[in-house]
Write a structure and sequence with these properties.
Helix content is 41%, strand content 22%. By secondary structure, it is an alpha/beta fold. The protein has a domain of 192 residues: 2-Layer Sandwich (Dihydrodipicolinate Reductase, domain 2).
């Protein structure tokens, strides 16, 4: 055998904990695209539904909870896709058993529970990746790459609008409108993580205005953030609007935009083109020609690819013995920022991020791999 041809390592065994809509439409298709992972067990309190899913997947082990799972087998990896207010118990049991964990974001539904998970993760040698999957999306990685390369110079202002209609995701996510849900935990945690990931600088202060829905969870939110170095970011969220997701990064030398539902790729416009009305109009025409409305139809596949990238990264981290990113510290920071935004809305004040919440080695931006 030639020295540069090592035998392929056997796939890691995986248990899926939580078999709801998100797991079936996003995580299972992503898992099927990662040959280094093999699904061996399903865990869900609805045993009848889980057993039906297991038969369709050729999986023989089905249990109602993680305690029963660990009595039957010990997988190498567990994907925890339960509602956020049901994260602590399965994650603590899995970490105590030395099982590596892919944990869907948010880290937990409350700051206290997030800190409890962080404590257990710090004491465990198992790898934990928190599912802030935007870091692994092809469009998002291209956008982040342009920002890292300084294509538009220093970024002065960021605008994010992240909305879903009742006809799409909001109606299918029961926890989204419940006491443990809301747009801050569901959407803002993603954007907090991705914003710091793209710019490589921490959020320093938060100002928020919130509107509660009929069941008490935040239905809409408007936030203003200040990052280290003075960059300002305006973030808007709603679970009762239209399907709309845009990100604009305004630099001193141009503009980088991403419109998930209308364009299949982020766009970069230089300052010279922005200053010329004819050139800007031509740019908008070409942008429309490139998209042809295809992004809406490509979206499900792109999201699954992002999850595939996250799961592949976890496998690489396990086999290389290095931390998995986004880490528990990254997930904890996002939940802390949600807590701070709620306090800001309640007090009507701009609140600084406490010094102890800011840095830490896990917040340092990771190197970007080539976009595939």
């Amino acid at each position: 055998m030639r020295p540069d041809h090592r035998p392929a390592e056997p796939p890691l065994s995986v248990a899926l904990v939580g078999c709801g809509t998100h797991a079936r439409t996003r995580l299972l298709p992503a898992l099927a695209r990662v040959p280094s992972l093999r699904l061996v067990a399903l865990v869900d309190p609805d045993l009848v539904s889980a057993a039906g899913l297991a038969r369709s997947l050729g999986v023989s082990t089905v249990r109602a909870d993680v305690a029963a799972l660990l009595q039957a087998c010990r997988p190498d990896v567990a994907i925890v896709a339960t509602p956020p207010d049901a994260h602590v118990e399965p994650v603590v049991r899995l970490l105590a058993a030395g099982v590596h964990v892919y944990l869907e974001k948010p880290l937990a539904a409350s700051l206290e529970e997030a800190e409890e998970i962080a404590g257990w993760a710090a004491a465990s040698e198992a790898r934990v990746l928190v599912g802030h999957h935007l870091r692994f999306g092809r469009m998002e990685r291209r956008l982040a790459g342009w920002l890292r390369e300084g294509r538009v110079g220093p970024v002065d202002l960021v605008h994010v609008a992240h909305l879903f209609s009742d006809a799409s995701r909001a109606a299918r996510s029961g926890y989204l409108t419940g006491p443990a849900g809301g747009v801050l935990l569901e959407y803002a945690t993603h954007e907090f993580d991705f914003l710091e990931y793209c710019l490589g600088r921490p959020i320093e202060s938060v100002s928020a205005s919130l509107r509660a829905g009929p069941r008490g969870a935040e239905e809409a939110a408007a936030l203003t953030l200040r990052l280290e170095g003075g960059t300002l970011a305006n973030l808007s969220f709603s679970s009762a609007g239209v399907d709309h997701e845009v990100r604009d990064y305004f630099g001193r030398e141009g503009l980088i935009s991403m419109d998930r539902y209308r364009l299949a790729w982020p766009t970069l416009e230089r300052r010279r083109a922005l200053a010329s009305r004819p050139r800007r109009a031509l740019g908008q025409f070409l942008k429309g020609c490139r998209s042809l409305g295809l992004a809406r139809y490509l979206l499900p596949g792109e999201v699954v690819n992002a999850y595939r990238g996250a799961l592949s990264h976890l496998v690489e981290a396990i086999r290389a013995g290095r931390p998995a990113l986004p880490s528990v510290a990254d997930g904890l920071r996002a939940v802390r920022l949600v807590h701070l935004a709620r306090r800001s809305a309640a007090t009507g004040r701009v609140l600084p991020v406490p010094e102890g919440w800011r840095a830490g080695e896990d917040r340092v931006v990771t190197a970007l791999e080539p976009v595939r």
